[in-house]
Design goal:
The complex is a heterodimer of chains A (441) and B (481).
Chain A: H1 8-19, H2 26-42, H3 58-61, E1 91-96, E2 99-100, E3 114-118, H4 119-125, H5 127-131, H6 144-151, E4 157-161, E5 171-178, E6 185-186, E7 189-194, E8 199-209, E9 215-224, E10 229-237, E11 243-252, E12 257-264, E13 269-278, E14 284-293, E15 298-307, E16 313-322, E17 327-336, E18 344-353, E19 359-368, E20 374-382, H7 386-394, H8 399-415, H9 421-437
Parallel strand pairs in A: 1-5, 4-7, 5-8, 6-9, 7-9, 8-10, 9-11, 10-12, 11-13, 12-14, 13-15, 14-16, 15-17, 16-18, 17-19, 18-20
Antiparallel strand pairs in A: 1-2, 3-4
Helix pairs in contact in A: 2-6, 7-8, 8-9
Chain B: H1 5-13, H2 34-43, H3 48-62, H4 103-112, H5 116-122, H6 132-147, E1 150-153, H7 154-160, H8 162-168, H9 179-187, E2 190-196, E3 206-207, E4 221-227, E5 232-237, E6 249-250, E7 253-258, E8 263-270, E9 284-293, E10 299-306, E11 311-314, E12 317-320, E13 326-335, E14 340-343, E15 346-349, E16 355-365, E17 369-378, E18 386-396, E19 401-410, E20 416-425, H10 428-436, H11 441-457, H12 462-475
Classes of the chains: A alpha/beta (441), B alpha/beta (481).
Chain lengths: 441, 481
């Protein structure tokens, strides 16, 4: 690429520094400056860094990205038609290249007590509302890419659900990337605040129009108040040339319930960090994941679940299907602090390898400092059982179809947990299509 | 050291032409440089190739830094404050009788049922030549020689079998492997050499316990076991009785080589001094153990019971290179008081049809800190490789820690691997059941813990298994309630 921009770490930092305007808000500018300093101090991680042991940053380092400056407003409703899911009835919010587009986000029918707006919009109109929330969950000790996101923090989506409010229809955040003449990096920042007793379903989708090369470096902060409930379904289906970096920071108060389903299908290089903290007891966090890695793809998941308080429950259940030269990394850590008695945590990572050249690295870790806990983890790696295949073949089903059936069955456990039928059908179809085109050997 | 490397090089360079410093005393003064390495080698009267090996390792060691990734805390070790060679103790320095020995130690000996003469030997009391074990050892050596098995100290082997040493030493754990392996290669004091010729089934369990001249092998022990095609050997290391030792840092290296169809069974019971209640003065046990299944259908099996040491840092590993070779790792580790253990294994599957089993049982009590850290790597050519890993942790008390850090890397789809881990405490139901049948709480805990570890104890040679059970009960005394 001859963009003239510096590549690698310098490029990222230079772009982040260039973006620092802060809309004249003192606190925001200070926060962005601190984040930039943090990023500078860290530098680009290497494979010596435990969190990047199996994840090569070479591809990302060699590529220069520019920050988009102005929102892309030329898109019409018809242009994004192909990005929509049939039959999915939702409160839709559309971001293009990291910018909130009000024209494509029809938010009239929101129930009482629910507020959805663009971050940039709110920073202009009600900055005080955001000051207490932004970075409140992610904290000040940010890893590199979250720090870079914070350093150029400007736009994204804010969802605030008041106490006791219940949303019947899901909220759908569509992060759309549109190819431009030079590779762009979009760094949207999403903020989800669920007040006490609020209930909602949030669907986050990452996708592109076309196969262009770009990078998404998003951070989503979610805070759940007392007894709040959030179903959070994230479907990553970026362009096959894209880089995807996502950081999810979750904080749960007493009795709250979070069900997160992470589906990874697209991008050539995708890294997801899920970070869970509890601020009250009896909270329940359920993280489910499904990833498909095909030729030249890397799917990298990092889970950091810390039980600092007693009586919380967490479940981590990730399943992967690898084909072609696909690579996947799973690095999960469940930490139980000294006083977090009665913690119940179960982590599982199961993988299906369909080809000779796929590669998998998994690291399910437990760090336990309390005795009255129930913690377990399990990992399996294997291929499709020849007996199962034989059973289906003996019933007249051709080998490729039988394989696909078995893979879909394997993936089904996660897909079935999605809350809307339209989304379940969509994901099943996407998974099926990918398996069909995959050279199953 | 404050001088720059360049100056050091010039200062040292003259010795390359064969000058050495003469140091008179029995024990070398603290500190480590090339002269010390040469002096160690000279004192042991080693041939030139050994000096070269040691110096190469020493020079490499200088370029390395101490590993910081294990989940253990200890004050930084000053490697210049350690004396790297001490001649075997003269009898007049040793304690004269059991009266001079720590009564706590003696109590433990009695509980383990160790005969009085053995107690003296273990406690480091000078024993006279008529001591029974000497004759026992001699009988053993005779029957081993008959079978053609070589079982001697490394120093002896360097002189008598230099070809074997040249061929095998450092071939599994090269001096470049890690910080402590490099240090060991430079300054190792002594150790054991076992060679089992082709097709020979070693007639008895080999144990350093019976090799009188193996006592006082010092802090940098080196063990090399070579099993030729179709042979079998079972080796026991350590003993259940707590051992007194002046050296705080122990950095041993163990290398096992199994050729086609050979099997090596290596059992360890480690019970070094764990330090006082505050964890002061305990042994640092930083060991590199690795077995190389070079031949097809070879098998290496590690069994360890780790109850001692203030800090244990140890990962007995298997390189499964031969087709259909098998690696096993069975471990029970107990940490109590302020003990810390970071232990586990590495199973590197390279050959086709290789299989490995990992069973790790960790018991953490008091302020104990325990980490299972394991790697299972299945290479691209390891068609049909199989691994099963199970690591269970038992927590006793609410101030102890149990970590599980498994690393699993799979590059072959035909591989089948499973990993399971659980963490739990002794449940009140279990305890209540035992108590209602009239068992004291301590007996009940001991029973439950022994049941928890049974899978591993079953792998130990019989006499060891019995002792290990007793040891475990004693180790956990007072940990409950």
């Amino acid at each position: 690429m001859t963009t003239g921009l510096p590549t690698g770490f310098e490029g990222w930092v230079a772009e982040a520094a260039r973006a620092a305007s802060g809309r004249g808000l003192e606190w925001l500018e200070a926060r962005r400056r601190t984040a930039l300093e943090q990023a500078r101090a860290q530098g680009m991680p290497t494979s010596k860094d435990e969190h990047w042991r199996y994840t090569s940053l070479t591809g990302l380092r060699e590529q220069a990205f520019a920050l988009p400056t102005e929102p892309l407003t030329a898109l019409q409703r018809d242009d994004i038609e192909e990005a929509l899911i049939d039959g999915l009835d939702s409160h839709r919010v559309v971001l293009v290249n990291g910018r909130f587009i009000p024209e494509l986000s029809p938010l009239e029918a929101l129930p009482k007590g629910v507020r959805i707006a663009g971050l940039a919009q709110l920073l202009e109109s009600e900055p005080d509302l955001l000051q207490g929330h932004l970075n409140a969950v992610a904290g000040d000790d940010l890893p590199l890419f979250a720090a870079l996101n914070t350093a150029s923090l400007d736009d994204g989506v804010v969802v605030i659900v008041d106490g006791g409010a219940v949303l019947e229809r899901p909220i759908e955040l569509v992060h759309l990337s549109v190819g431009l003449d030079e590779p762009r990096v979009a760094q949207p920042r999403n903020l989800v605040v669920m007040q006490a007793g609020a209930r909602a379903t949030l669907i986050e989708r990452y996708l592109s129009l076309g196969d262009s090369l770009y990078c998404t470096n998003c951070v989503t902060e979610v805070s759940l108040g007392r007894d709040a409930h959030l179903a959070h379904e994230r479907i990553q289906d970026e362009s096959p040339s894209a880089f995807h970096i996502a950081g999810l920071y979750l904080r749960q108060d007493t009795g709250s319930n979070y069900v997160g389903i992470n589906v990874g299908l697209g991008a050539r290089w995708a890294r997801t960090d899920l970070c869970v903290r509890f601020s009250g007891e009896h909270a329940d966090c359920d993280l489910q994941g499904l990833y498909l890695a095909g030729d030249g793809q890397l799917m990298d998941y990092h889970l950091d679940v810390a039980h600092e308080l007693p009586n919380c429950r967490s479940q981590e259940n990730f399943k992967g299907i690898l084909h072609g030269k696909g690579r996947a990394v799973f690095d999960g850590l469940v930490f139980v602090a000294e006083d977090a008695q009665k913690t119940d945590a179960a982590m599982s990572n199961r993988n299906l390898m369909l080809s000779e050249s796929a590669e998998l690295d998994t690291k399910p870790q437990l760090e336990i400092n309390a005795d009255d806990v129930k913690c377990s983890h399990g990992t399996t790696v294997g291929r499709i059982e020849p007996e199962m295949l034989f059973y289906l073949r003996s019933r007249g089903i051709s080998a490729p179809i039988a394989r696909r059936m078995l893979c879909l069955g394997f993936a089904g456990e996660i897909i079935d947990k999605l809350s809307t039928e339209a989304l379940r059908d969509y994901v099943t179809e996407q998974v099926g299509q990918r398996l069909e085109s995959a050279p199953l050997s | 050291m404050t001088s720059t490397p360049a100056v050091d090089d010039i200062v040292k360079s003259e010795y390359e032409h064969g000058f050495t410093t003469e140091i008179e005393s029995d024990t070398l003064p603290p500190g480590l440089d090339e002269d010390v390495v040469r002096a160690i080698s000279k004192r042991k009267g080693e041939p030139d190739f050994m000096i070269e090996l040691r110096l190469k390792a020493y020079r490499h060691w200088l370029t390395m830094s101490e590993p910081e990734w294990p989940a253990v805390d200890y004050p930084k070790i000053d490697f210049q404050a350690i004396s790297y060679f001490s001649a075997p103790k003269r009898p007049e320095d040793a304690p004269k009788s059991l009266d001079e020995i720590d009564p706590v130690l003696l109590e433990t000996y009695n509980k383990l049922g160790i005969p009085i003469e053995e107690q003296k030997a273990l406690a480091g009391i000078a024993v006279d030549a008529v001591f029974d074990s000497v004759s026992v050892a001699t009988t053993f050596r005779e029957s081993l020689a008959e079978a053609g098995v070589i079982f001697c100290s490394i120093s002896e082997a360097v002189h008598q079998y230099p070809e074997l040493i040249k061929q095998y030493m450092g071939s599994v754990v090269p001096h470049t492997d890690n910080f402590y392996a490099a240090l060991n290669a430079a300054v190792f004091s002594d150790g054991t050499f076992v060679y089992v010729p082709k097709g020979v089934r070693c007639p008895m369990e080999l144990s350093t316990y019976f090799r009188i001249n193996a006592r006082n092998t010092g802090q940098f022990e080196r063990t090399l076991i070579v099993a030729e095609a179709g042979s079998y050997v079972s080796y026991l290391e350590g003993c259940t009785a707590p051992q007194r030792d002046e050296n705080q840092l122990h950095a041993a290296v163990v290398e096992l080589i199994a050729l086609e169809g050979a099997e090596i069974k290596y059992s360890t019971v480690q019970n070094w001094y764990p330090g006082d209640a505050e964890g002061k003065g305990g042994i640092y046990n930083f060991v590199t153990k690795r077995g190389d299944c070079r031949g097809a259908r070879s098998k290496i099996s590690w069994t360890q019971v780790e109850t001692g040491s203030a800090i244990t840092w140890k990962y007995p590993s298997c390189l499964l290179r031969g087709e259909d070779s098998v690696g096993e790792f069975y471990s029970v580790a107990v940490t109590k008081g302020r003990q810390q253990a970071d232990t586990g294994t590495k199973m590197i599957h390279i050959g086709k049809g290789t299989r490995s089993t990992i069973v790790s049982k960790g018991i953490s009590a008091g302020h104990g800190r325990q980490t299972y850290r394991g790697l299972v790597r299945i290479g691209q050519r390891a068609e049909g490789a199989r691994n099963h890993t199970q690591c269970d942790s038992l927590l006793i008390g609410d101030r102890c820690t149990a970590n599980t850090f498994p690393y699993i890397e799979v590059k072959n789809p035909s591989a089948q691997m499973e990993h399971e881990a659980t963490t739990s405490k002794i449940s009140d139901d279990q305890l209540f059941y035992c108590r209602s049948r009239g068992l004291t709480e301590e007996d009940a805990v001991s029973m439950i813990v022994n049941g928890f570890c049974k899978e591993v104890f079953n792998e130990l040679p019989m006499e060891f298994a019995v002792e290990a059970q007793k040891l475990l009960s004693i180790s956990l005394e007072g940990a409950v309630g």
